[in-house]
Design a protein that fits this description.
There is one protein chain. The chain has 451 residues and is of the alpha/beta class. The chain folds into two domains: 163 residues, no CATH class; 268 residues, 3-Layer(aba) Sandwich (Rossmann fold), CATH 3.40.50. Helices cover 48% and strands 15% of the residues. It is built from 17 helices and ten strands. The strands form two sheets. It has a six-stranded mixed beta sheet with strand order 6-7-8-3-9-10, sandwiched between helices. The protein has a four-stranded antiparallel beta sheet with strand order 2-1-4-5, covered by helices on one side. It is elongated. 37% of the residues are buried.
């Protein structure tokens, strides 16, 4: 009888009640977090200790500050439950305390939910899962905890020690020289706010690209390639200085927006328009308004000749081959004669022959003094056409960093790899099938820049 009373007391203090369902769900949560803690390099049995459990969830998620608040909320709830027992024997004091406990419990429940979601979002990032998992974490956290804790397919991309480590807090301390010609990028940081928390997407990226250079942009999934390109073209501004041919892109964005041609992976062309009509529409939007229709048409004819589209000028876009459609999407951006061309996987869906023809065309454009920056997932088949390579990699804190920028041959020496795909593999994490050397190369390149 004494043992039963003691057990009920402990359940009331730690779990807020002795209902069987509460006990079962709490135990399932403990088992799930036990597995998560072990995978994240933490002590598994801490999952069975309230308050300590919440603090370690924050550590596993890379959200120590939120984890401390989460743990404090849990401690206060335990104290409230424990204090209620002291007032049970006095009806007057008990009634007054019930009103206080109701209000305090509501406030703490709201805080617990908010900070629990912050920590859950951190775990989602650490395990590399989709954000829609947050719905399950919000309602039945023991289910994802059990799955991620004990199923082999769910593995953390970083351990708690790696997340805490300041090993990659080493910065180059240098800036690229701003010249009258070419592209200069001095990007200090690109951040986003998530649940009121500042998150670094990119940091410490500095480079100067010469006119006439064709540059390959490499990096594993989540390394920040698209974020970097959006920062360069001014679509998503960063804390940065981007200067193209002596003009600051951010300060003169409206005047310079057509100095940069951006070709996304998926085109937005209407299939019911002809090639000529598509390019004329582009000319109307991108060329100065003072030009006559005849002058715009002359530019369209010139661009069609450059990209080999004259034979299909009257064909519908929907009837074009994959290669012709790619060339048309590039031709649209080439209408205003931009100084910088950015292309996101222009060879997607093309066979080797067609892809090489496309890249040879881009090489010819670069040879006329243009800067070309390209993302491609099959770089080795056309690497001979490039001058330089940019390698972005995620550091231990999941921030995109510059692991290398420079000539192709020097990149091979720097990474000790012959192929570009091998270089990407070297900076990808082991959980992603890579060698897990991103932090090493980020630090080495920062030291090279600092020297």
């Amino acid at each position: 009888m004494i043992l039963q009373t003691l057990l009920n007391l402990l359940l009331t203090i730690f779990f807020g009640g002795s209902e069987i369902l509460t006990i079962v769900l709490s135990l399932l949560g403990i088992v799930g977090y036990w597995g998560i803690f072990r995978k994240c390099g933490l002590t598994g049995w801490h999952a069975a200790i309230p308050v300590l459990r919440e603090a370690d969830i924050g550590r596993a998620a890379g959200r120590e500050r939120e984890g401390r608040v989460y743990a404090m909320d849990a401690a206060l709830i335990i104290l409230l439950n424990a204090a209620s027992i002291l007032f049970l024997g006095d009806p007057v004091r008990g009634e007054r305390y019930d009103m206080f406990q109701l209000g305090a419990t509501f406030v703490l429940s709201v805080l617990t939910f908010i900070y629990g979601m912050k920590v859950s979002l951190g775990l989602i990032e650490v395990f590399g899962q989709k954000k829609r998992w947050i719905l399950l974490w919000a309602v039945f956290d023991f289910i994802p905890a059990l799955m991620w804790g004990w199923m082999k397919k769910y593995q953390p991309q970083w351990t708690a020690e790696e997340l805490k480590s300041d090993a990659t807090d080493y910065f180059s301390g240098s800036r690229a020289e701003v010249l009258d010609q070419g592209l200069t990028v001095n990007l200090e940081e690109r951040t986003a706010t998530e649940f009121f928390k500042k998150k670094y997407l990119l940091r410490d990226i500095h480079m100067y690209i010469q006119p006439g250079h064709m540059v390959l942009l490499l990096g594993g999934s989540g390394a920040g390639k698209t974020t970097y390109l959006n920062a360069v073209n001014g679509y998503e501004k960063a804390k940065a200085e981007v200067v193209l041919n002596g003009r600051n892109m951010y300060k003169n964005y409206k005047d310079m927006q057509y100095d940069i041609g951006f070709v996304p992976q998926q085109d937005l062309m209407r299939g019911s328009d002809t090639v000529f009509r598509t390019l004329m529409d582009a000319a109307t939007l991108r060329l100065p308004t003072e030009l006559t229709r005849v002058q715009r048409q002359e530019r369209v004819e010139e661009v069609m000749t450059i990209f080999g589209l004259t034979p299909v000028k009257d064909s519908l876009v929907s009837k074009l081959s994959g290669g012709q459609r790619k060339r048309l999407s590039i031709a649209m951006e080439f209408i205003p004669n931009p100084s910088l061309f950015i292309l996101d996987e222009p060879d997607s869906g093309l066979d080797g022959v067609m892809a090489r023809e496309l890249f040879q065309q881009l090489r010819q454009i670069a040879d006329h003094g243009k800067i070309i920056i390209v993302i491609t997932h099959t770089p080795d088949r056309v690497i001979d056409l490039f001058d330089d390579v940019i390698v972005l990699a995620k550091d231990a804190k999941r921030t995109g960093r510059l692991a290398y920028f420079g000539p192709i041959e020097e990149a091979r020496t720097f990474f000790g790899r012959e192929g570009m795909e091998e270089i990407v593999k070297s900076v990808n994490r082991k959980e992603e099938g890579g060698d897990g050397l991103a932090d090493d190369f980020i630090r080495r390149y920062a030291e090279v820049q600092h020297a």
